[in-house]
Amino acid sequence: MRRIAHRILVQIIMLLSLCLLTPDAVFAQTAEPQTAEIQTHETQTIQVGYYEDGDYMSLNQQGEYVGYNIEFLQEIAKQSGLRFEIVDAGSWNAAYHMLVDGEIDLLPSVYFSEERLNEILFVTQPMCSIYTTLNVRMDDERYDYEDFKAFEGMKVGIIKGGIDGVRFREFCEEHQITLDIIDYEETGELLSALDQGVLDGVAITHLGKNSSYRSVAQFSPSPLYFAVTKKNPGLLDDLNRAMNSILLNNPGYSTDLYDKYLSPSTNQKPVFTRDERQYMAQAGPVVVSYDPGFAPLSYQDKNSGEFRGVVSDIFHFIESNSELFFVYEAHPQSEALELLSQGKVDALCVSDGDYLWDGRNHINSTLYYLSSPTSLITRNNSAVQEVLALPKGYQLSEEVAKDFPNSVIHYFSSIRECLDAVHQGKADAAYLNTQAAGSFLDDIYYNDMNETTLSRYTNKLCIGVSSNADPRLYSILNKCIQYLPAEQVDAFMIKNSADAKDISLAEFVEQHTWPVMGGVSLILGIIILLVSYNLRNALRSNRRIQELLYKDELTGLDSMNGFYGKWSALTSNKKQHGLALLYGDIRQFKLINDTFGFAMGDKVLLTCARVLSEALGPKECCGRISADNFVLLLQYQSWEQLTLRLTACVDKLDQWRKEETEIPNRIHVVFGVYLTGQAEDPDIHQMMDLANYARRHAKNTPGSFAVLYDEQMRRAAVVAGQLESSLDQALSCNEFEVYYQPKVSIRDAQVIGSEALIRWNHPEKGFLMPGTFIPLFEKNGMVKKVDFWLFETVCRTIQSWKQQGIRLLPVSCNFSRLHFIEPDFPEQVCRIADLYGIPKNLLEIEITESALLEDSDTIVSMLPRLKELGFLISIDDFGSGYSSLGQLQQLTADILKLDRSFVCHGVAGIREQIVLRNLIQMAGELGMTVICEGVENRTQSQLLQAMGCRFAQGFYFHRPMPQADYEELLS
C-alpha cells in the first residue's frame, strides 16, 4: 500500500508539472481581437495567417489561440527569437492569397505543389505527414470503409482551391467513382453543410482529436509545411534553422504533437470495410490467450476465474466497437506462444516483440496500445547481477539476456516466480515490466526488495495475432487499436491499478498498525460526540422540519402540506357543507418584481397574506402554495356575500399600496372558485385543479375578478382535453384540410396569390374552424406541429401544381411566435421547401403583429435570416396592436397585411381615411406591398383603391375555398 500511494503521488506530481510546463494556449489576446503575439526578446515581428481549423488552430473559451500549428510556432519562437503576430484571414483561401500578396509572412500547414512553388516558399522540413479523409456523419450508416459502390452518387464538399480537393478527385478517378463535388470557401461552412444534411460527406485533411465524424476513406498521405511569402525570403533561413534545431533535439517532436492534437479520441470509432464486416458476421469466437499473472495488465480473478486487467478492458473496448466475440484462455506466455504456433489460439493479449521476434513466433503484431517502462528488481542489500531472473515468453527477456552475456539467466513462467527467486537469493536481480512488478511489490512479503525504473528498456505492448489467422482479423484488431484513445488507456490503468491487488484486512493492519489504532479511536470518539449532539438537538430539528413541511417560510401561512392538513380536519365532519375553495393569483406580480425589486415583491406577498388571514373565520383557512398563488377554504353562503368579502380584502391591499409604497397602479387579485357539494366526496387535489382552472380563466379574461367553476367550463375543459389527445391521430389520419383564400389586385380582381388556412374534419365533432383549436394549441405548444403540417402540405401541393402545369402564385402560411424561439427555425422551413423543390419566393412566412409585440426582439432578429434564405415575409393583422407605427420602421418585411379593423371602421370618415392613406404610403416607401384584409363590399374596394391600395383580400372577392376550387380558379 505504501508503494501504491507513493507511486500514485509521483504520477500526479508529474502530470501537474507537465500541465504547468505545457502551455494550453501560447498566444495572448491583444487589444485587437483578431491579432495576438508570441513575445520574445527580439524585435522582428512575423505576421502569421490564421483561419479556424479545429485541432490545427482555433480559439479556446478564454480567447487564446491553441492547436497543433500554434504550439509548433511557440517552439519555433523559442528556438529562433522571432515574434509572431496572428492575423485572422477568415478562411484558407483568403489566408493563402494574403501570403502570395505579401500581406502576411507565414502560413502553417500548407501542402506542397509545383504550382504553389511558383508563388510561395516552403520550409525544408515538414511539420508532419497527414492524409486526406472522406468523412460522413457519425449516425450515417449508409457507407462502410472504402465501400466504393456505396460512394457512387454521393454529394461531397471540398475546400475551394485546396490540395485536398485535387487529391480527392484523383482518388475518385482511381476508383472510378462518379459523385457530385461542391466547393466551399471556409471549413466551418463546409462542416455545417455536412451537419445539416446538405452534404453526404466532406473530403478534407484529417480533422484531429475533436472530430465528430466517421472516416470512410483515407488516402494521399502527404507532408504539411510552413509556407513563407516570397516577399520575405530571409525568413525562410530563420525557420529552417529553427526546424533543424527542434528535430535534432527531439526527432519525435512532430509525433508528440500529433499524439496530443490529432490522434483518435473517445468520440471517434473505427470504420470497417464491407469485407471486414462480412468476416465479423460469419466468424465464430476468437480464441485469445492471456497471462494470468501479469497484473494489473492481465490476470485471472481469484474469485470468479475471469479475465481481468487493463488488457481485458481493452478487449472489451474492441468488442464494443466491432462485431468480434472473444473467448479467453489463461496460459503462461511461453505456453501461449506454443499454442499460437499450433493454431490452437488465434491471438495473444500481450506481445512485446519486434519484426524478428514476430517472424520466429509466427506473429503479426498490431499497433502498440501501451508503452511501458522496465524495472530492475534487487534485494536491498544486493548490488551484483551475476544471476538474473527473467519471465519466459517475452522479447524483453531476450534483450536483457543479450546485454548480459556473462550473467547466468534463469527463466520463470511468471512475474511472481521471478520475484520469489530474487527474494530467496536464487537470483541477484530481475528485469520486469514496471506495472506488473509494482503490483506484486506492494505485498509486505517483498518489503526487502528494491525497485529502480529504467529508461533503457521500453515495453511496447500490442496484440499478437497468429500469422495463420484470417488477415481480416488482424486488420480489424489493428483498426480498433488505432482508434483506442490514449486517455482511455490511462483510465483503464488507473482503474486496474487499484483493483488488481487484493489486500487482506490483516495485511493492511500489519502494515499500518499505529494509524489504524489512531483512526479507530478517533472514529469512536466522533461517534460518541455525534450521538450526544444528535440527542440534544433531535427535538429542535424535529420542530424545524415540521415548520418547513407545513409552514410557508416567507408569509407564515400554511404551505401546501399544512393547507391539506387543515382541509382534512375541516371536512372530516360529513355534515359539514357549504364550503368554497378559492385559488388566488396576483395579477402582474412579475412586473412588480421586475420594476420595484424582489424586496417590494416580498412586501406585497406579506401584506396580501396578512389581509387574507385577518379576514378568516373560525372554521376557515388560508395558505400560500407558490410564488403569488394563495388558496383559501371559506364558508359559503352566497356569491354576493363571497365577492363582497374578497373585494374588501383587495381594497385593504390597495389602501396599503397607496400609503406604504410607490407602486402607481392598483394591485389586482383574481380568484378561481369551486363550491363543494353536500353529497360530494371532498377530494382536495381534484378540487384544487378545478379552482385553478377557474383562476386561469379569470386571469385570461379582461375585467374578471372572481370566476366560479361551472358546467360550461367543465365541458370546455373536456373538449380541450379531447382535442389535445386526438391531435397526433388527426395528423396521421389526414383529418386536417387546407383551404386557400385568394389575394387579388383591386383594379381588375386578378388573383396574385393566396393565404393557406387550416380546417379540421373531426370524425366526431364535425368541421372545426381554426378558432376552435388553434388558441388551445397555442397555449400548450402543440401549434408547432400543426403549423409544420400546414407548411409541408402547401409545399407538396405547389410541387403537384408545378407538375400539372398549373399557374404558380405565392402562398402565405401563418406561423406561431413559438417557432421563432427556436434558433434553427429558418433552416427547418428551408429543408422542407428544398425537399419538395419549391422556390422560396413562392412561400410567404406570415407572422401576426400580436406575436411581434409579445416577443419583438427575438422575431425581428430572425426575419433577415429568413429573407436571406429567399422567403417572403408577411406581417398579418397589422394595426391591431398598440405600437404598430413604432414597429413599422424595424420590420424587414415584404408584405404588410392591414388588419380588417381598418377596413371595417377606417374608411367611413375623413380622419380615418387620412390615417389609412398615409399608412399605405409609408409602407410603400419602405418597400412593402400592402394588402388590405376584410374587404366585404364594392364601396370599401373603391375607397381603398382611391387611397392608393393596390391589393386586397376578403369575402367581396373570394371566400376561403378547398384546394380543388382554388386550382380551378387558377386554371
Mean pLDDT over all positions: 86
Total E-strand runs? 40
Separation of termini? Answer: 90 Å
CATH level-two architecture of the domain at 742-757 and 780-970: Alpha-Beta Barrel
As residue ranges, the low-confidence spans are: 1-42
Q: Which fold name is given in CATH as the topology of the domain at 742-757 and 780-970?
A: TIM Barrel
Q: Which range best describes the helical content: under 10%, 10-25%, 25-40%, 40-55%, 55-70% or over 70%?
A: 40-55%
How does the overall form come out from the CA principal axes?
A: extended
Computed Rg: 40 Å
CATH superfamily label of the domain at 742-757 and 780-970:
EAL domain
> What's the CATH class label of the domain at 742-757 and 780-970?
Alpha Beta
User: What oligomeric state do these chains adopt?
Assistant: single chain
Structural class: alpha/beta
Strand count, sense and barrel status of the largest sheet are: 9 strands, mixed
Given the structure, what is the number of helices? 37
Classify the beta-strand content into a percent band.
15-25%
Pfam family, one: SBP_bac_3
Protein name: Diguanylate cyclase
InterPro entries: Cyclic-di-GMP_PDE-like, EAL_dom, EAL_sf, GGDEF_dom, Nucleotide_cyclase, Rev_trsase/Diguanyl_cyclase, Solute-binding_3/MltF_N
Keywords: Membrane, Signal, Transmembrane, Transmembrane helix
